[in-house]
């Protein structure tokens, strides 16, 4: 119902329905008899005890009505104030007739009312939280928009905190999420295409993009891929992500998922497409490149020099978090000549008499780190802190004192842990935590040579994958100075006049440098 | 799927090959290496008098002898390995876990042999940590060995991949291993203490600081003469006292500390230092001058068959000390000119004396006049090439030093 409304607003045609459970309702026609209709519904919704059937008899006009809704999905006040009360008041006026038209046009005071003839539409409407009103003697029924279920209020995005950004994060409701975007982009060019996915869940999905800016082939491609999904259900946006991405065996995410509204709006303005999935606060952004995963919204809220410095820190952290343990292993076991003499003696001293070879030590501690990270996510917040203290301090200290590992390895491992949290996108952090282990093995087997072999493999892979036609390393290769404006460094805002070339957008101009200059001159 | 399989199996195979074929190549735990910090090369020494019947001394010496495949031992090689305490629980913030400062923190092993490589491998019969030379800091050569030529004992060190250019080379008139046996007051190891000494070249020019093994190798291969620092020691101290001049690979003589200043001056190697002159108006007054910047250029002056070397130098100095305070004159041009002239005279005469000493006593071209001729007067060089050392002994030198006094440090 609301869906149809929204579709009407944006002039988007309804897509042909996929085979699903509701189709079985198609054959049943609405009967003039309330009793029969009730039976039909009970048949369709067998064993659904949360359906509310409310029979109403209006004495003066001698009309029987049947009101059906699902408990918990409707706003009870809305039904009482805008359906039941007006009907009773009208009836109390005395000797009048009440017919379907009158109810629809005059008596029902909610925003959305529509007439339906088939059970298929009624069923879907009912499941979306609307209220059905059958009237004795009519082969039609009213669908009244009374949707109102419990939703979380808009909060600060927990997984992506920033210092300078807006405090609004997406929530589970698709309507709210779309409104959050529309609030910030006030142009009729902002397109919101609605789709449904999932034979059983019938999850609403919205594609949000800027018409006239985005590459329309991209929209077509994303739409096609989503429409081709034929699955029982979608419970989170990452399922959509996995179903539509190019390279299923890659450990690198090819679609960004974010809770942040400002990040999403920025991406839409750059000419990317946004996929909002009902029931999850994580919105998908495509296409993305390697560099976008190392950008934080905070970069755009700070001055270009400071945020460029932070970007450099982030890139170095990326290298450290993936390679530092492997590097430590390779340098100590194969190339101790490359470490300054005092340090080599310190490391040697700290390793004297330890039972495990360095490679085992590194693997044990890295594994422990992964356990700790995983445990601290699972555990409730107060206990989680206790675990990190126990893990970080007690286990580390105890392991050193017990002579199982060397103190240096604790430094190395905690540095890798710290640097991994510098990377702003969690799914990207995960994939890079995974890279660490093969690199440790390679470093342990062949020293620096092994690490470089490992990185060459990773680079070959990175260069070979793409996200919706945009190469993953597109910012860096083929090399063009223009492309680096918003990667390792961030040039001043006034210089970013063009949308990223690799996105192949229709309207490349983002702002006018002359105008930006004029403001500066004044 | 088949395509995937074949593609991934190829990837897997190539990874497998990388792993198998390198086979952990020289994986060695960091604590299982014996980090050689210093090498000392001596002549083998007969037993000292009075020790012939000392049982423990004999026992000790027994380990130093090795069965040689050829010939008699020509050198006594000593390597220094740090003694690292076993990892132990140290109280937080407590620093080192005690340990006596009286006991040496290094282990010096001596072997008598005639090939360093052979001796190096023989060390592994005494040492469970195989010697590892990438952290070699110093090589100390006994003067007697140096006078016989340093190429034979250093050949392996010059060519082995484990050796590093940065290793410093020193000469000593004492037994070289005694330098390694020094227990430094602050540092843990004599080798690291000694290796850091030439870094003070910005403070004094009395020691040659270009003493890297790489420089020695370049000089040896380029067939130019060179100088190396001479050290002496007590039980807990090492001192650089001057330079040893090498002709070819053989040491021919020494330069004192002050001569070293002027030898470095000619080589344009002054990084700082001090000269003391007498005031011109009153020889009882001493002026101490700090060398700020010294730039020396050598050029040949060819006049027919006659060759001279022009030493043109510009020095910027500060007035560091003056034994008679005359601050009221300090800003007068006369005063400044006077000091500049005095310094110029002193430096020029000292340079000339140093050259004369080297020409007559040592006969080693440590100033690289040869290189200057090769570069700027190649035709003349061809003429004198065959009897170069004879020409060098009688080479005329023109010295022109320009001194500029920069800071006088006046306080009113």
UniProtKB/TrEMBL annotation, chain A:
<dbReference type="GO" id="GO:0009847">
    <property type="term" value="P:spore germination"/>
</dbReference>
<dbReference type="InterPro" id="IPR050768">
    <property type="entry name" value="UPF0353/GerABKA_families"/>
</dbReference>
<feature type="transmembrane region" description="Helical">
    <location>
        <begin position="273"/>
        <end position="294"/>
    </location>
</feature>
<feature type="transmembrane region" description="Helical">
    <location>
        <begin position="408"/>
        <end position="427"/>
    </location>
</feature>
<dbReference type="GO" id="GO:0016020">
    <property type="term" value="C:membrane"/>
</dbReference>
<keyword id="KW-0812">Transmembrane</keyword>
<keyword id="KW-1133">Transmembrane helix</keyword>
<comment type="similarity">
    <text>Belongs to the GerABKA family.</text>
</comment>
<protein>
    <submittedName>
        <fullName>Spore germination protein</fullName>
    </submittedName>
</protein>
<feature type="transmembrane region" description="Helical">
    <location>
        <begin position="315"/>
        <end position="334"/>
    </location>
</feature>
<feature type="transmembrane region" description="Helical">
    <location>
        <begin position="439"/>
        <end position="463"/>
    </location>
</feature>
<dbReference type="InterPro" id="IPR004995">
    <property type="entry name" value="Spore_Ger"/>
</dbReference>
<dbReference type="Pfam" id="PF03323">
    <property type="entry name" value="GerA"/>
</dbReference>
<keyword id="KW-0472">Membrane</keyword>
Automatic annotation (TrEMBL), chain B:
<dbReference type="Pfam" id="PF25198">
    <property type="entry name" value="Spore_GerAC_N"/>
</dbReference>
<keyword id="KW-0449">Lipoprotein</keyword>
<dbReference type="Pfam" id="PF05504">
    <property type="entry name" value="Spore_GerAC"/>
</dbReference>
<dbReference type="InterPro" id="IPR038501">
    <property type="entry name" value="Spore_GerAC_C_sf"/>
</dbReference>
<dbReference type="InterPro" id="IPR008844">
    <property type="entry name" value="Spore_GerAC-like"/>
</dbReference>
<dbReference type="InterPro" id="IPR057336">
    <property type="entry name" value="GerAC_N"/>
</dbReference>
<feature type="domain" description="Spore germination protein N-terminal">
    <location>
        <begin position="26"/>
        <end position="231"/>
    </location>
</feature>
<dbReference type="InterPro" id="IPR046953">
    <property type="entry name" value="Spore_GerAC-like_C"/>
</dbReference>
<dbReference type="GO" id="GO:0016020">
    <property type="term" value="C:membrane"/>
</dbReference>
<keyword id="KW-0732">Signal</keyword>
<protein>
    <submittedName>
        <fullName>Spore germination protein</fullName>
    </submittedName>
</protein>
<feature type="domain" description="Spore germination GerAC-like C-terminal">
    <location>
        <begin position="242"/>
        <end position="409"/>
    </location>
</feature>
<comment type="similarity">
    <text>Belongs to the GerABKC lipoprotein family.</text>
</comment>
<dbReference type="GO" id="GO:0009847">
    <property type="term" value="P:spore germination"/>
</dbReference>
<keyword id="KW-0309">Germination</keyword>
<keyword id="KW-0472">Membrane</keyword>
<keyword id="KW-0564">Palmitate</keyword>
